[in-house]
Each structure stands twice: as C-alpha cells, then as structure tokens.
Amino acid sequence: MPAAPPFRPLASYAPIGDGRTVALIGTDGCIDWLPLPGLTDLPVFARLLDEETGGCIELQPTEEFRSERRYLPETNVLETTFTTAAGTVRVTDALVSGVAGRLPWAELARRIDGVQGEVAMRWRVQPGTSLQTAAPWIESTQHGDIVRSGSTAFVVVGFEHGPNPPVDDGPSGPQLTGGFTASAGSRHLLALAATHDEPLHLPAPHNIDDGIDRTIESWQHWSAVFSYDGPWQAHVQRSALTLKQLIHSPSGAIAAAATTSLPESPDGGKNWDYRYAWVRDLAYTTHALVRFGLREETHAALSWMLRTIRDHGPELHVMYTLDGDLVPEPDEHDVDGWRGIGPVVTGNPANGQLQLGVYGDLIAICRTYVDAGNVLDVETARMLAGIADRTCDLWRNPDSGMWELPELRHYTSSKMGCWKALDDAVALAESGAIPGSADRWRAERDRIRLWIEEHCWSQDRAAYVFFAGSDELDASVLLHAPSGFDRGERMSSTIDALADELGAGSLMYRYSGAAAEEKTFVACAFWRAEALACVGRHEEAIERMDELIALANDVGIYAEMIDADDGTAWGNTPQALSHLGFLTAAMTIRDIVPAELLGDR
Q1: How many C-beta neighbours within 10 Å does residue 64 have?
Q2: How big is the CA angle at 193 (ends 188 and 199), to the nearest 5 degrees?
Q3: pTM flag (> 0.85)
Q4: For the segment 254-286, what is each residue's pLDDT rounded down to a tens digit?
Q5: In the 8-state DSSP scheme, what is residue 552?
Q6: Which end of the chain is more exposed for a tag (fewer CB within 10 A), N or C?
Q7: Cα–Cα distance between 576 and 498 in angstroms, integer?
Q8: How far apart are CA 67 and CA 62, in angstroms?
C-alpha cells in the first residue's frame, strides 16, 4: 500500500486576495493554492489538493529557519519574517491592486527585504496540471519566456535574482527556479502576472514593487471606512478583512470559501466546492456590511443577487456562480486530495435542492437594506411580494434544509426561515417598501409559528427539534434567536439541550449524529454565543466568545470546521460562514450586553 502523501495543516495557511482570487500562503513561505486569474478557475497552483502534480510557488531560506508572520495593520498584505543562524529576512506578500482599483490581470508580488546578517534564499515556481486537466509548458516569445497551462498564461518577473530564471523539469512539467542572498538593507522581488483567455501584460518589476505599497495604502483606506467600536475590535476587523477577500469585485457576489474539496472528516466523501455564492451567506454578509457602514459592498452584493435571481427565476436557487450563472453539477478530478482524502471536485450538487430558508434569507437582505435608509426599485419590490406569496404557498412542503441533506423533511429551521420571510415582508409592506397583501402574509406567518410550536417543539427534550416529530437536534435553530422568532425560555432550554448533545466544550456539531461523520462546525459555536446573548445569558456568551477567538489560527483565520480533540482545522478555508458567525455574534453582544460585563475586550 503506498504511503499517504505529506500534508500541511490547514491552520498553517494565511489567505491574501485581490477581489478576484485568493492565494494560501504557508508558514514556510510556500503558496500551495492559487487559482488564476479568478477564484473559480481551475487552479494552476494546487499542491494543497494534489501533492505530486498540483503546482506551487516556493520562497524560503536554504538553511534551517523559524518563521513569524502577521498581516500588516489594517490590510490583507502578509508579512513573514524568516530567521536563520546567519540572519533575518522579511517577505511581504500581496495580490496587487491597480491605481484605479482592481487590476484587469492577477498580479502576485513577493518582496524580500534583508533585515540583518545574510540569508541565502531559494525560490521555485512549479505550475501544476490544473487538477489533471492541462500540461503546462514554457513558450519563448520576443519579450521573454511565459508559462501556459490550458487557457491560463503567466509570466515570472523580478529584480536582483537575474533577468532570465533557469528552467528545468519538475514533477508536473517545466519549473522556474532561482536563488539569491539577502543582506541587511537589500531588496529583491519575485512576482507573477497572469491572465486567462486574454493577452498577457508583462509588467515592469519596479512597477510591481511600487504596487505593493499602493496595495497596502488601499487596504488601509478601506479599513479607515470600516466602522466598528466594540469588544474584540482587532479580531472583528481581521474577520471583516477576511470576508472582503471573498467578495468578487467584478460582480459583488460573495464566495462561501476560497477553496474546494477540503474534507470535513478523515473518512472523506463530504468534500464540496465552496467557491460559489450562497443566498444564505450573502444575506448574513450584507447584514454585517450594513452594520459596518460599508455602503459600496452592500449595494453591489444586493444588486448582484437581485439581478441574478431575475435572470434565472422565477424559482430561487440555493447558490449561483460568482458571475451570476447557475452552478454546474460536480466534476470529479483524478488527484489524491488533501491528506489523500478524496474526492476532489469542481461544481456543487446542492443547487437544485428546495431549501425553504432561502426565502427568508432573500427578504431579510432587502429589509436590512431598506432599514438602513435605502429604497428598492419597483421591479425588486414586486419580486419580493411574489416571493412572500410563494412562501405562503410552499412552507408546508418538506425540503432539504439548511444543511443540504438528501432526506426531504419538515426541518424546523426551514419553517422558522419561512416565518422570518413573512415577518420581514409584513414590515416592508407596512413601511410602503413593497406592494402586496400584508394581511395574508401576517396570517400565514402566525400559522407557521403555531405549526412549529405544535410539531417542532419536544417537551421531553425541552428543545426545538431537528424536524417535525423527531427527537433529534439541529444547531441551525439557534439562528432564530437573533431573527426574533424566540428569545425566551424555550430557546434558552434549547441551547442547553444542544450543548448537552452537540457541544464539545466551546465547539458544536451541526446536528444529531454529525459527530460520527465530521468535525465540529465553527459557525454553530458562534451561533450559540449569539443566542446566549439574545436570551439574556450574557456572561456565558462572553465566555464562549473568548474561548472561540483563541481557536483561530495565528493570524485570525477560521476554516469551516475544528477537530474538538486536537484543535486542527478541517473543511474549506477561509470560510465565510465561520467569520460571519463571529462577526454577527460580536455585534449582537456589543448591542445587548452591558458594557461593564465586557470590560476592556
């Protein structure tokens, strides 16, 4: 039996992004994930999933080293300091922005500054096979060598390491390699520019180096606009900056994560492509963006969602591509996967499911937008009225639930989502924001509440259950403490029941039986903290938050899941829902909990 491939812990990666793609950089200076030029393109650098032929960009000392890293304050620019016996060197990594915003091509810049002594450095650019769909090759042109892999082309440039990097053969084809010595006060640059099905711009290295400083200033300007005054401020800003990396700037859509196929358990099978925009995630993100005062991202996300729904309506889909198309069915790729755990897929099978909760998510986005002082267009107002009517007609049906399960059932959180849809529709109608029959929506909303109380509450469990008639539990009902469905004794006792069955210290599994199939779900743990605040258990909420903040990686990043036994990260990363769970919990606690309990957090 062949040995399992080596792997790098997911917590060792820090993301950098430019509004179009995201690179994952390890503590060792290696970039093992970088789709080019867009996040949903097949990744030219994907050693994260394909150790042998996935491709990578390496940059590190030739001798034994230790490393420390941080994001430059108020930015998504990563600074890694390598220390060897002979000296210290600092690497600054950025996906570079342009003078007038996002560049029309992808540009990765790695600036190497000598700090102390002398440090011999080596670098390697090994293009991969794009998950076994392309064979990279070097093309010699009148302006120098460029690398092609399928429809993606890129050039490697720099200064102080020689104008023409040598080419030799690596495991997936040709690779570029080189080395140099950094000394106190020296500066070197390794950079890459890429396009897909477009002409390739060959940037001047010194312009790229200037672009790093411009990118730092751009992120700091964005952070100055960002508005939050409350507990865990540094962590809140880092999570907001992480979410910003997942916003697809050409459209305004928000990706659920930057990766595909990172497993939820060692057994495999639950490997999904999260590089798409879920209506649910966009609703939660928009709510947070409004509260942070980020007007441009709020408007872009909402406008993209409404336009996309109209283009593919009348029925709502669970998710869409970042460009506003329907998500394709999964394609499986013949590579090993992270830690040898497959499958590795592109596409997602959940798009065709009926998930009733998305009706509440969509109308909630629009109510948040209107409550912030904005006005809906006539077509959107009519569409929302139609969706409210559709909710009245459909809520009695079973669905796949928030967790996209194959079993069609009357999931409690789906019914609560329908209640939320009609509650928000009534509020919008009463404010004059949308037309329609508020009386019908109000009556049906009240019928949903009565149905939930009759069929989805278990006196024996003292909890809202997973689905009607069940005695199993589901953490997603916690979302309906902040939604306003229940902030009383029933929700409080549900929190206790969930903690007893699904809790693992401060962490939490998604639903009954999940512990046998997967790791704990980070967002669920933050939902519990937020729900605790909503039901008045303030000190418990603060305690949970303090414990969960300590479980992020060294630069404040959360993946989808955490192993409750050893604290390792699992699932796709960085995960929008994990960071959204933290952000909404922090803001709710700030708004509800007395300041004297929060202290100097």
Answers
A1: 7
A2: 145
A3: yes
A4: 999 999 999 999 988 889 999 999 988 888 888
A5: S
A6: N
A7: 23
A8: 13
